[in-house]
């Protein structure tokens, strides 16, 4: 499976994304690419004049988009979320708006997209040196998850990856090394999660750990270290110990490896697409696709 496969899957679904404050050429280029490739139509919510300027900036046609005027970022976020909550759009996407303002509307108890679980971020990588898509979670939302939060992050990832057709994903619970060390919580949590999976408390996946990065993705490294596991060297998902390690790992792969990538926030009633200003047009489009599967 690769991003081309994900694109094909989305094209058959006729999806709609609600975009809050889609100002600037980069955001609109991604949305125009999604429209031209029959991946998704967009509802653009924000200041109408700024939206139209952004559309004209990239040479696109204003008439190809539904534009909903909002006088402030707060109003735009509220209206954008309402389209998803009322099932008029399949995902919500952040444009040029403060993350705090955007997320406040998303998580509003009465009108938002909260559903009881925690939110977590998933990044997908298509790297030339790996034989399939690799997913890393959570490098963006939960700062220092305890064991119960790691279970929820894990369940979010399993549920998402299963939707892509991976019926029983292989999850490597990450640490600095592959041996359990009672002084290092990441290793003991990994062992507990693996045992919970063995006993059926965590379902629909192979979960094992602790793993270091090398033996999670390299069968050769795992064999050299004598690790025998269904997951070793063949992981679909890497569950990281905390947001710092996850973000560092994700950014290192993004900038140092020859790969394509995208990301999405899961755990709400609908996917949340949070784009980075540093993302290029292809990455933005990959993230949109991930949010619409």
TrEMBL record:
Signal peptide: none annotated. It comes from the Bacteria. One of its GO terms (molecular function) is acyltransferase activity. SUPFAM superfamilies: Isocitrate/Isopropylmalate dehydrogenase-like. NCBIfam families: PRK08190.1 (NF006045). Belongs to the phosphate acetyltransferase and butyryltransferase family. This is Bifunctional enoyl-CoA hydratase/phosphate acetyltransferase. It comes from Candidatus Mcinerneyibacterium aminivorans.
